[in-house]
Design goal:
Layout: E1 9-10, H1 16-29, H2 33-36, E2 41-42, H3 47-59, H4 65-77, H5 89-108
Parallel strand pairs: 1-2
Helix pairs in contact: 1-4, 1-5, 3-5, 4-5
Amino acid sequence: MTKTLANYTAEKFQSAEQLWFWFLYSKSVRNDFMYRCGRQTRRPCELLDIETMITKLYLCGKLSDEDLGVMKKFGDKRRAPHQYIWSENYAVAIWAHAMKVLGDAAQERGWID
């Protein structure tokens, strides 16, 4: 028996970091992500929804080039910058600001609990 999308319930993200890491990983896998993960639930938004939200946040000035650069760099590493690693110390505050902006926007849309 084949499962249909209707059998899946939407599972909200627990944080902006979780949303961001899911977004980057999903973009790299792209096709049938939720099925390959073996999850029984789906997310409350699509990749395009998150991409559109991030673009709007950038265009209205809430996210800067520096924010996006740090988000991409540490998103590719699949972890947040660590304050006790000297070379990453500068990125901690930038990451916190970017995740706050992203979290507020996603929470407003009902994607984060």
